[in-house]
Write a structure and sequence with these properties.
Elements (H helix, E strand, L loop, with lengths): L15 H7 L2 H4 L3 H17 L5 H20 L11 H13 L12 H37 L4 E6 L2 E7 H26 L1 E2 L15 H7 L4 E2 L3 H6 L2 H27 L7 E2 L18 H24 L13 H22 L4 E2 L1 H8 L6 H10 L4 H18 L8 H5 L9 H4 L2 H7 L8 H14 L2
Parallel strand pairs: 3-4
Antiparallel strand pairs: 1-2, 5-6
Helix pairs in contact: 3-4, 3-6, 3-8, 4-5, 6-7, 6-12, 6-19, 7-10, 7-19, 10-11, 10-12, 11-12, 14-15
Length: about 450
């Protein structure tokens, strides 16, 4: 039977099965740096409050530095019987500096300690996530600049709709990622609140300077309700939520690139260095990397549902269920950042197939809307012009001709408004450049948008 730090209340130690079931050090040791960082700040706060002498605080700080060195050098052995990262570090500290190390836990509980460590960890990883996303956006903007003169069909319902610029299509994803980036910044602001000093659930009876310790750790404010502070995992759920949205956006791009790289589309060439072959079929070039991004999206969604389910019926304040938060969030950050970084590395090497795109955009039915707009400019109301052009399209299909292959007499069968000018608008380049309003596909509009986004990114 294993004895615990809290075992004075119990006649018997913890059953080995129960110990193995409840221990978290196997995964929460990832928080060691943040646990020590928080402990150092707490020790300084205890010293300022007169609870520790300056000599004691200095000794504790030295001991904590020594523990860090042991962990980083690989000498430190995390022990399951000590249950979690906090107990492991405290036990090592006491062994190094004696009973004064036992004073470190004054005025705090493992409940506010783990809430602090987890927030510190998430704060750092959010910054990393943000920086990775900016890297992907910059790589995409560079690709958009390179491809601004390449036209392609735009789609609705996966059916060819209107001509657009390849660059304009890429910029659509940057708009999604910009929304993701703002969500990261918003969640960062809500995470940046210190729970330390909340104790187990009711605060602390010691005169600790919560605000001073918070500033010492880079927090902008302290929590204002001790019950909420130790039981709040909204920030973890928000991380899972924004990660799910971000992965959905990555997955949409991955799906399009998978489709576009097929023989049927042949719109892009994927780099060999990001594809794999078949163990049986020698000719295959498989987009496995993109498929994995698409697949890992479901994994991230699962973490969101898991966290919501863990928290959905917990009474205040802390409950052991909340130990289930960390593995999900640890994996979220690893998964999402890896997916972003690999797409950023792929982006410069993905090459549009200009010949196939030109052939696809030459489909004259992509210009049917332009034909209707031309009639409107000649005084025909849009509903009538829509019906007229619909009949022209049907006629063309029946005759197996492109729109520009119809004679003027063919056009005038459906409206006497048609004249020789109609052939001037039946060109993809004219179509995209007519759309000059903000957010449109005209060349100058797209270049202006690229510049705006370059200036917006940090």
């Amino acid at each position: 039977m294993a004895k615990k730090k809290w075992s004075g209340r119990f006649e018997k130690g913890l059953d080995p099965l129960a110990l193995d079931f409840t221990q978290s050090v196997e995964f929460d040791k990832k928080l060691y740096y943040y646990d020590i960082l928080g402990s150092m700040a707490h020790a300084r706060g205890l010293a300022r409050a007169g609870i520790l002498s300056k000599k004691e605080a200095k000794k504790i700080a030295g001991g904590l530095h020594a523990v860090v060195r042991d962990i980083q050098s690989g000498k430190f052995q995390f022990k399951e019987e000590l249950e979690d990262v906090h107990r492991n570090i405290e036990s090592a500290l006491i062994k190094k500096i004696g009973r004064v190390g036992g004073k470190l836990h004054t005025g705090r509980s493992r409940n506010d300690q783990v809430a602090l460590d987890f927030r510190l960890y998430c704060r750092d990883r959010l910054e990393e996530l943000h920086d990775s996303l900016v890297g992907l956006e910059r790589a995409t903007l560079k690709k958009a600049k390179e491809t601004v003169d390449i036209l392609m069909p735009g789609y609705t319902h996966l059916q060819r709709a209107q001509p657009i610029r390849f660059a304009h299509h890429l910029l659509a994803y940057i708009e999604m990622w910009e929304r993701d980036r703002t969500r990261i910044l918003e969640v960062f602001r809500r995470i940046n609140i210190s729970p330390l000093g909340s104790g187990a659930l009711a605060g602390t009876a010691f005169p600790v300077d919560r605000e001073g310790v918070a500033r010492d750790l880079g927090f902008t404010e302290v929590s204002h309700n001790s019950l909420d502070a130790v039981s709040d995992r909204d920030f973890a759920i928000e991380i899972a939520s924004l990660s799910s949205l971000l992965m959905m956006h990555l997955s949409r791009l991955a799906e399009e690139w998978i489709l576009w790289s097929t023989t049927e589309f042949n719109f892009i060439h994927l780099p060999d260095s990001f594809c794999t072959g078949s163990s049986m079929m020698p000719q295959k070039k498989n987009p496995d990397i993109l498929e994995l991004i698409r697949g890992k999206t479901g994994r991230v969604y699962g973490h969101l549902i898991s966290l919501l389910t863990v928290m959905k019926s917990l009474p205040l304040a802390y409950n052991k269920d909340m130990q289930e938060d960390k593995e999900a969030v640890f994996d979220l950050f690893e998964t999402v950042i890896n997916c972003i970084d690999i797409l950023a590395a792929m982006m410069p090497k993905v090459q549009p197939n200009r010949t196939a795109l030109q052939r696809a955009v030459s489909d004259s039915f992509l210009l049917a809307t332009d034909l209707a707009d031309w009639l409107v400019k000649k005084g025909v109301d849009f509903r009538s012009s829509h019906e007229i052009v619909s009949k022209v399209v049907l006629f063309s299909l029946q005759k197996k001709k492109e729109l520009h292959e119809l004679s003027l007499a063919d056009f005038r069968r459906f409206s006497k408004t048609f004249n020789q000018e109609v052939y001037q608008i039946l060109k993809p380049e004219i179509s995209v450049n007519l759309r000059r309003t903000t957010g449109g596909t005209a060349r100058q509009t797209v270049l202006k948008e690229i510049k705006r986004l370059e200036e917006r990114l940090p």
